[in-house]
Write a structure and sequence with these properties.
Helix content of chain B: 25-40%
Helix content of chain A: over 70%
Oligomer: heterotrimer
Radius of gyration of chain A: 23 Å
CATH topology of chain A: MetI-like fold
CATH topology of chain B: Rossmann fold
Strand content of chain A: under 5%
Largest sheet of chain B: 8 strands, mixed
Number of helices of chain A: 12
Shape of chain B: globular
CATH architecture of chain A: Orthogonal Bundle
Number of domains of chain B: 1
Number of strands of chain B: 12
Distance between the termini of chain B: 25 Å
Chain lengths: 303, 326, 325
């Protein structure tokens, strides 16, 4: 764009890159609010056992007589149920906190494993090129051309229920994204001079790959990982809702919603509604943060 | 003397960015007469392209014209309505750009892009418009115009794409054509062909031409008058032969002297020391003073264009006025 | 063009073959084929007879050949629950799913492209920002929750639309379609909307990004220099440019819509392939699951192929490259 280059604006070089990136991130208030929400949710999830009024998995604490109480009702023993109770007499607020904890746990763990797996695959493919690259990327392409939900459904149908199986399903759905992203970034970096230099120094392959290539190709992964955590949460919720996800004994948000689904039509909406709201806030907040990160890191949109 | 086609007076265009306002064009004045070719010369960053955009009202936000007047055939363009500018563009004032690859839309056919240029300003049938497009392509020297009309831009070479752009620009026989470095991206042999063709076409239709470039050699062969820009201002203007033979302004002199072909073989190349200032960071007074061999204390003060004999002008306290020219 | 098509057809056939092999391996070698193909309620004698009939006592490679032969002949097993050939069951339910997926696709295009285009043209306006933030909500909302909320609003609170099921159908080309009746449309709108919102948000974001990039291009400035009206610049130049990536995504996402229909059909009790799949998983009706997989894989491959072809038709640069290839 001739007009803009002639003017030649440059950012103040004094700001460190990280501080600069934060400032740009913070320009949109929605992003900052979303980030705060994410931090809050993570805090609540980590502290759930301490913060929740009741342990919803402990059957001795439940009173079946208190079931299906609407929000802000008081139970027989005087306990205030802020968000009501479900059909078993569980306090919804506690159930939501524990469910949030489980949802986040599953998603973050799955994302981390998928990230590691995908990164190694992608970097190896990019570094070695040729046949290895073609084979790995063909695998990635085939995987990516099938919708995540089907792959996960079938895997869980074969493997059965359980938290670890859900994690496996989520990992197998996600790893391909990371592989493809980092391969693209690494391919661009591979041609740079510092990799040539490292090779001339006869550094061992793995060292070149992991100490030199990887750190520089990593940036786009941060955005992908953030968005993928949100996807994982949504996917786990969907799988649990369909009944193939986490077991009934440890409900995640999706399962809570599934439990309350039937009661909705008869007016006891809160059993499904509030877990849904919690789920929504978590996913939207993470997506907003990831979206803003992407804008900040995208050089093409900078005018 | 008949009224000029274009009279720019004290034009200023600024860009309002996060880091402050940047004045890319800073009080520029010049005029172009009917059928005249004006060469607008300057380095990157001198403001010459923004000047061209300002004339057509194509300055994108965050930039806008902040002052001055642009009188085209007696009508004021600065501040004119979008609709009025739109009706003038393409019909009375046309522009061609530097990079022929991106000037044409890659997913539309050539005839589509030419016909829409015609029908935007005149109510003609599709067939009549196509016939005119065909004739225009032939006029710029494109062989087998019928095949070419049905083709897509990426099937053409750079030189041909530029010819198409020129054909489009001249479709309505505009009174003024602004050409922004149209040959910079092309091979040298194609360059001279295109130059010659544009010259002929404009002479034939009486179109005034503003040729924006950084290349003095182009200006030497093509223009009638030349205006030299530096850091957003015009620092010298006059008839091209006079300016090139006996430049008044130290910058012009430096530009001419730094052309490699003027050097004796083996002798070190002449350079103008230092770098052009960023428009965000201009020194007070004469912007060229930091690099000028003739600068002194008075050059830091305000500075206007002073007239010189032979319809020339220079913005300098110490122009190279030779004794012989007096 | 023709050699390109042949090459793509070959690739597609290869993918189907690979998937079929994977399914076979999953069913016969890894999983316990006896459990998968023979109903759990069968007693000893029936099991023995079934094993013999299905050739499960033969060597693996022979079983594979039998599998391929019957697959090519259209026999993908028999449903335990319903007792009819699995393929027939799936094909019966396919029109309902296709109807849902296509309607959702149309809605997402009609909503998404204009929204994204508008937001791209005026990114800092209130409406533009609202559209972009709204699109984040759109693809964040889990499909099933959106469906539930829509049911809550329209069926329970406002009581204007039914809460589930498919409406009346009418026959067209030998198949029953429900969009041809008013009752059918009433039943169709909520599930289609649920399915469409996710896609519409993605399409809007894509259109937004494409528009922003297109506006920075020189050819837009040149179009303005020609004196073209803003309507023409946006409606022809910008739109055609962004259409190419958008269409590609839409085409590929049609497949994912069919997949996501699994959830929507469950929420709305819509009698399509997806609901059949979920039921079959619950009831361990594994031949149906296997058949579903193969059918869906084939569909995806066909869709991908179609998208590739359409893409070459749309982008003249690719079209000519493939001609010369």
């Amino acid at each position: 764009m001739a007009a803009i280059t002639e003017v030649g604006i440059t950012d103040t070089a004094a700001e460190s890159r990280l501080a600069g990136a934060w400032h740009e991130f913070a320009e949109r208030r929605t992003a900052v609010v979303a980030l705060a929400a994410v931090v809050l949710l993570i805090g609540l999830a980590l502290l759930a056992p301490l913060v929740a009024p009741q342990n919803p998995y402990d059957l001795t604490q439940l009173s079946i007589m208190d079931n299906k109480l609407p929000p802000l009702a008081r139970g027989l023993d005087g306990m205030l149920y802020l968000l009501g109770t479900d059909d078993q007499g569980r306090d919804m607020l506690s159930a939501i906190l524990y469910g949030l904890r489980l949802s986040l746990y599953v998603s973050v763990v799955a994302t981390a494993i998928a990230l590691a797996l995908g990164t190694v695959t992608g970097i190896v493919a990019a570094y070695f090129g040729g046949r290895i690259d073609a084979l790995l990327m063909r695998l990635v392409d085939i995987q990516l051309s099938f919708p995540a939900i089907l792959i996960a459904l079938i895997l869980l149908a074969i493997l059965g229920k359980g938290i670890d199986k859900v994690v496996i399903a989520l990992v197998s759905v996600q790893w391909a994204y990371y592989a493809r992203t980092i391969r693209g970034a690494a391919l661009a970096e591979r041609r740079r001079e510092y990799i040539e230099a490292a090779r001339c120094l006869a550094l061992p392959q793995w060292r070149i790959i992991f100490r030199h290539l990887l750190p520089n190709a990593f940036a786009p992964l941060i955005v992908v990982a953030t968005v993928q955590v949100a996807h994982a949460i949504a996917l786990e919720a969907t799988l649990s809702f369909l009944g193939v996800g986490v077991p009934i004994t440890e409900p995640s948000l999706g399962l809570l919603i599934a439990n309350g689904y039937g009661y909705m039509l008869s007016g006891d909406y809160w059993i499904s509604f509030y877990p849904g709201v919690a789920l929504l806030i978590a996913i939207v907040a993470i997506n907003l943060v990831g979206d803003r990160l992407r804008d900040v890191m995208n050089p093409r949109l900078k005018r | 003397m008949p009224a000029p086609v274009l009279a720019v007076t004290d034009l200023s265009t600024s860009f309002f960015t996060r880091n402050g306002a940047v004045r890319a064009v800073n009080g520029v004045s010049f005029a172009v007469a009917r059928g005249e070719v004006l060469g607008l010369v300057g380095e990157s960053g001198s403001g010459k392209t923004v000047t061209g955009f300002s004339i057509l009202g194509l300055v994108d936000p965050p930039g806008r014209i902040v002052g001055g007047s642009i009188r085209f055939l007696g009508e004021e363009l600065a501040g004119a309505s979008d609709e009025r500018l739109r009706s003038l563009r393409g019909a009375s004032i046309a522009m061609i750009f530097q990079d022929p690859m991106m000037t044409l839309n890659p997913v539309l056919r050539i005839d589509t892009q030419m016909i829409e240029a015609i029908t935007a300003h005149e109510k003609v049938s599709h067939r009549a418009a196509r016939a005119r497009a065909r004739a225009a392509l032939a006029a710029v020297g494109i062989a087998s115009p019928d095949e070419r009309l049905a083709a897509y831009p990426h099937q053409f070479s750079g030189g041909m794409r530029q010819r198409v752009a020129i054909a489009i620009a001249l479709l309505h026989r505009p009174a003024l054509l602004v050409a922004d470095e149209p040959t910079t991206a092309l091979d040298v042999t194609i360059q001279s062909q295109i130059l010659a063709e544009v010259q002929d076409l404009c002479a034939e239709s009486g179109t005034a031409l503003i040729w924006i470039t950084h290349d003095l050699a182009v200006v030497a062969g093509l223009a009638d008058r030349v205006a030299v820009m530096y850091a957003g201002r015009i620092v010298e203007e006059g008839p091209v032969d006079a300016v090139l033979a006996q430049p008044l302004h130290p910058y012009t002199r430096g530009l001419i002297g730094s052309v490699p072909s003027r050097n004796a073989r083996g002798a070190p190349l002449n350079q103008i020391p230092g770098m052009a200032p960023s428009p965000a960071d201009l020194p007070p007074g004469c912007a060229f003073a930091p690099r000028c061999p003739r600068a002194d204390v008075v050059c830091a003060g305000p500075l206007g264009m002073t007239g010189h004999p032979g319809e020339r002008a220079a913005r300098c306290w110490h122009p190279y006025v030779s004794e012989a020219a007096r | 063009m023709l050699p390109f098509l042949f090459r793509r057809l070959g690739q597609s056939a290869l993918v189907i073959a690979v998937m079929a092999t994977l399914v076979f391996v999953g069913v016969y070698a890894i999983g316990n084929p006896i459990d998968i193909l023979i109903s759990p309620e069968a007693d000893e004698a029936e099991r023995a007879a079934a094993i013999a009939r299905l050739g499960l006592d033969k060597p693996l490679w022979l079983q594979f050949l039998v599998f391929v032969k019957s697959a090519l002949a259209g026999d993908l097993g028999r449903s335990f629950v319903h007792g009819v050939p699995a393929l027939e069951l799936i094909l019966q339910r396919m029109p309902a799913t296709l109807e849902l997926a296509f309607t959702a696709l149309v809605i997402s295009i009609v909503l998404g492209i204009p929204a994204g285009l508008f937001a791209g043209l005026k990114p800092d306006s209130l409406a533009g920002r609202a559209i972009m933030t709204g699109s984040i909500f759109g693809f964040s909302l889990p499909n099933f929750w959106l469906g539930l909320m829509l049911i809550l609003l329209f069926a329970v609170e406002l009581q204007v639309l039914p809460a589930g099921g498919r409406g009346e159908t009418r026959m067209l080309f030998g198949i029953e379609w429900s969009f041809l009746t008013l009752d059918g449309l009433k039943h169709l709108i909520l599930p289609a909307l649920t399915l469409a919102i996710y896609k519409a948000s993605l399409v809007a974001r894509l259109a937004y990004a494409g528009t922003r990039e297109a506006l920075l291009q020189d050819f837009v400035r040149f179009a303005r220099a020609k004196g073209l009206s803003p309507a023409r610049i946006v409606g022809v130049h910008v739109l055609k440019t962004i259409l190419i990536p958008v269409v590609t995504v839409i085409g590929l996402e049609l497949g994912s819509m069919i997949a996501f229909a699994v959830v929507t059909e469950t929420v709305f009790a819509w009698p399509g392939m997806g609901k059949l799949l979920i039921e079959s998983i619950y009831r361990l009706d594994r031949p149906v699951v296997v058949a579903y997989l193969i059918v869906v894989v084939t569909m995806f491959v066909i869709i991908n192929l179609a998208v590739d072809v359409i893409y070459t038709l749309l982008d003249p640069r690719v079209r000519l490259a493939t001609k010369e290839a």
